[in-house]
Design brief:
- The structure is a single chain.
- By secondary structure, this protein is mainly α.
- It is about 70% helix and about 0% strand.
- The protein is elongated.
């Protein structure tokens, strides 16, 4: 597992702007939204449309792919890069929430510190 995390940091994927945005978005969703709200966001087509629009604007305005010679933009390659960037944003936000929940052990609520308090809360 540690070699996998090391490979993640040395590959440079975390420096991709859409992966970084997805990580921030996933953290925001995990800590600020309820389960139902997160589910509603990921089942709404507008979230995917927004991710795709951001990716299209970024890839065509900031990082277009040029044809050989560098005079004209290769629209097919730039459009495929935009789709992949939008996919990176969505997948990295989902994986960030999974990563946080993997390392979250709970126990923030002081009422459930002992087994007796937990049983009393269940009976109520």
């Amino acid at each position: 597992m540690l070699k996998g995390i090391q490979a993640l940091f040395t590959s440079g994927i975390l420096l991709d702007p859409f992966v970084l945005l997805g990580l921030v978005l996933g953290g925001f969703f995990y800590f600020n939204l309820s389960y139902e709200q997160v589910t509603a966001v990921y089942f709404d087509y507008r979230f995917y449309a927004l991710a795709l629009m951001l990716a299209i604007v970024y890839n065509f305005a900031v990082r277009p792919a040029y044809r050989r010679g560098g005079l004209t933009i290769d629209t097919k390659r730039t459009a495929s890069n935009a789709v992949l960037s939008g996919l990176k944003l969505v997948v990295s936000s989902l994986l960030m929430m999974a990563f946080i929940s993997f390392w979250s052990f709970g126990g923030d609520d002081s009422d459930y510190q002992s087994a007796e308090n937990f049983e009393q809360q269940l009976k109520q």
